[in-house]
């Protein structure tokens, strides 16, 4: 992660944490803050629903890569018209001033999950697989045309 981006992200987390810990109101009366780990399709759909749910909701997307959209950007047929429409929809969600994107953030390395749990009302883990996972079923390695989604 770039030093400036890390500093900005951690400052944001700490200020939210201080705001929460110094508040005299009950947690439920504060505007909710949600960290979503990952920035692929699942993350954007969750963010969209959360932002609809509460007018003062603040959502932060944390992504290991420098850019959002996950496999929609890099995956199957990124130049297909339907995929471009999805990216347009996600971009509209990302322009909401209540949503912030923090790229180059690796949860577990740059910031601990415990810190996120302390700083946010809720944390959603919506990251994709970084490598294929074996299923442990007979013939898994010898079946023709059966491939991992990763």
Automatic annotation (TrEMBL):
Q: Which domain of life is it from?
A: Eukaryota
Assigned keywords, A-Z:
FAD, Flavoprotein, NADP, Oxidoreductase
Q: Cross-referenced Pfam families, in alphabetical order?
A: NAD_binding_8 (PF13450)
Q: Any idea what this protein is called?
A: NADPH:adrenodoxin oxidoreductase, mitochondrial
The answer, when asked if Isomerase is one of the entry's keywords, is: no
State the organism's lineage.
Eukaryota, Metazoa, Spiralia, Lophotrochozoa, Platyhelminthes
Q: Which GO terms describe its molecular function?
A: oxidoreductase activity
Where does the sequence pass through the membrane? none
CC cofactor: FAD
